[in-house]
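Cont'd.
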Amino acid sequence: MARTDIEDIEVELFQHALLARHGYDFGGYAPASFRRRVLNLASNLGCANVGELTSRMLREDALLPNVIAGLSVPVSEMFRNPSTFRALRSEVFPILGSYPHVNIWQAGCAFGQEVYSLAILLEEAGLYDRCQIYATDFSDAALARAQEGIFPARDARQYSENYLAAGGQRSLSDYCHARYDFMKLDDRLRRNVTFANHNLVCDGVFCEAHLILCRNVLIYFSDALQDHALALFRDSLVRNGFLCLGNRENIDFAPAGRDFAAVDAASRIFRKNPRNE
Amino acid sequence: MLLVDDDADSRMAVTSLLDDDKIEIVEAQSGEEALELLDGKRYDCIVVDLGLPGMSGFELIDRIAAQSGPLPPVIVHSGRELTRDESARLRQHTDSIVMKGARSLERLLDEISLFLHSVHRNAPPRVLRDMDSGLHGRFVLVVDDDMRNVFALSKILREKGLNVVMAQDGQKALRQVDENKSIEIVLMDVMMPGMDGYETMREMRKRPALSKLPIIAVTAKAMAGDREKCLEAGANDYLAKPIDIDKLLSMMRIWLHA
Amino acid sequence: MTAPRAIVIGCSAGGMRALKDLLSGMRPDIGAPVLAVCHTGSEDVSTLCDLIGATSTLPVREARERHPARDNTVYVAPGGYHLLIERGGRMTLSVDDRVAFARPSIDVLFESAADVYGHELAGIVLTGANHDGAHGLLRIRQRRGIAIVQEPLDAEAPAMPQAALDLAGADHCLPLRGIAPLLNRLCER
C-alpha cells in the first residue's frame, strides 16, 4: 500500500480520535488543507508519523493547545488587504452610522490583528463608541493572545504601511507603545471588545450583528461546512446586515450563499438579502 | 404613511425621498397631532422623530402601542445618540431605528419600502395560547444582551402567563435579583460583553439569599465541556440555542415546582 | 505509460516569459488540467493571466477556490494564497505559513497534487531564483509521477531548476523549447 494511502487512513483516524477524545470536530474541513496541517503538526511535534501524533494526542492532554494551534486560522497581519478596509470604511461604515448601536462579530480572530485594525478605523470614523465588537475563535490560546494585543516589533513596519494604505488618518504608532522587541496596542482599543470562545462548526447564534467579518476561515471548510457557517452568519445578521469574507472566497457553492448579494465583489463585502417572507 | 417630525426641512427630505404616487404621506408636527390623526384612521407605516416638542417620540410610541389593535410598523428617526436603555425601550415596539446622518435617508427608504411592500405586514393578531397553569403568574428574569432574543423570548413567555423581567447585562441582572424579590427563576445567556453569564452566575451564588434560585444557563455553545462549565458556574440546568421552547417550558416547570 | 491526469508547473524569476512560451506550444486538447504557481511578487495575478493567455493555446485563468480544475485549462494560483487540489479535482486555497518564504508555494501545490494523482501526474520546474519546488518535485517522483525540469543553463534564473535536480532529480531535463512537445507526446491518449 502506498505511503499516501496509509497517510490518508492515519489522518482520518486522527480526526476521529480528536473528536472522540476532546470534542473538536474537524470532519467538515476541506481534506487537502487539513491533511497538510496534520502532517505538518506531526512533523513539528517530532512524531514519526500521524499514527504517533494520534497516540500522543490521546494520552498527553498538555499537547492539546499545540494541536489546536496547528489546526487553526494562522497568524495574520494588521490591515491585511488594505483595500478591503478602505472599502469597509467607504461602503459599510456610513451605513453602520445610521444605527444607534452597532454589533460587529469578527469570527476567527486568531491573535487579534484584524480586530484591532477594525477598532482603529472605527475610532477614526467616530463610530467606535456605539459599537460592541465580539471577537471569537475556537482556540482559547489564540483568544488569550488576542486579548494581550502584543505583536512582534519586526511586524510593526508592515502593519504601519498597511494602516496607511487602508486610509488610516493618523499614524499606527499613535495607537501602540513600542518596546524593545514588541509593540503593544493601547488598552483603550479593547474597551468595547469582548473576546469569547465560539466554534463555527457546532455553536449557534449568539448575537444580532450589523457586520460580520470572517476572512480566510471558510477556505478551510468543505462545501457543507461553509454552507453551515454562512447560514449561521445569515441568521446572526440584522436585516440588510453586512458580511465581509476573505478576498478570494466564493459563496457560489453554498445554498446559503444565495441569501447574500455582493456590495463590493472585489472586496468580498456582501449584504444580506431581504427575506421573502 | 404618517410622518411625525417638528422640523419642516427634515420632513421635506423624507417626502421628497418617497416620490411615489402610491404612497400617501400625512404629516404631523407633534405627538399630540399624531395621536389625533391616528384616531380612527389606519396607517401602514409611521415614521417618528424622537425629538418632538411637548410629548416625546418615546412617549408617543408607548401611547400608540398601548392602543388596542395591531401596532402599525414604526420607524424611529433620531437626531441624537441613544443610550442602550433608550434603545431597549424602543426595541419593545420596533427594530427599525435610523440615526439621522450621512446615509440615513438611504436606510430610511429601505425600511419604509420594506414595511409598505411586504406582503405579511399585517399578520393576523396572535391567538393567545392556553395559559400554562404551572407557569402562570410566575416571575422570570431573562438575561441576554441580544435584544432580538430577549424580546422574542419575553413575548412567548408572557403569552404563557409569565411575568417577565429583562436585563441586558450582568450588572443589571444582579441589580434585578437584589432588588426584585419576586423573581423566581433566571434564564441566563452565557455569552455577554463585560460580565459574562458565567461570572454573573458565580456572583449570584455568592449571595446566600440566592443560593436556591433556579438558574438555567442558555448558550450558543455546544461543545463537550460547555455544559459542565455552566453547571460549575452555578447553573441548575443548561439549554442550547436556538432555544427549543417546549424544552425550555418543561425545564422551567420542573425548576419552579421544586 | 498512462497519460498524466494533471500537470503542475512552478516558476519564479523569468517565469512569466517561460510560461508564455511553454503554453503557446501545448496542444489544445492536452486532456488534463494545468495548475501553475508563478511567484510574481504581485498580489494580483490577473495581468499575468492576460499576458500568458494572449498566446496560450489553452485558456488561462486565476484558480478560484472550490471550482473544479477542468481539462485543457490553465489555472494560476492567486497572489498571497497557497493552491491545493482535492480528490475529485476541486481547487482549494490556504493562507497557512509561507513555505520556503513563498505563498503561493510550489511545494504545496506539487505535494497536494502528488497526493491526489500519484503516478498520473507531470510536474514541471522552470526558471526561478529560489528553491521552492524542489521538495514538491521529490514528492512527485516518490509517487512515480513524471518529473520535468528546465535545463538550468537554459533558464533565465537557474537556481530553482538546479535545486530541483539536486534534491529530486528528474525524468526529463531539457531546454524550455522541448518541454511543450514532450508534454504533448506524454499526453497522447
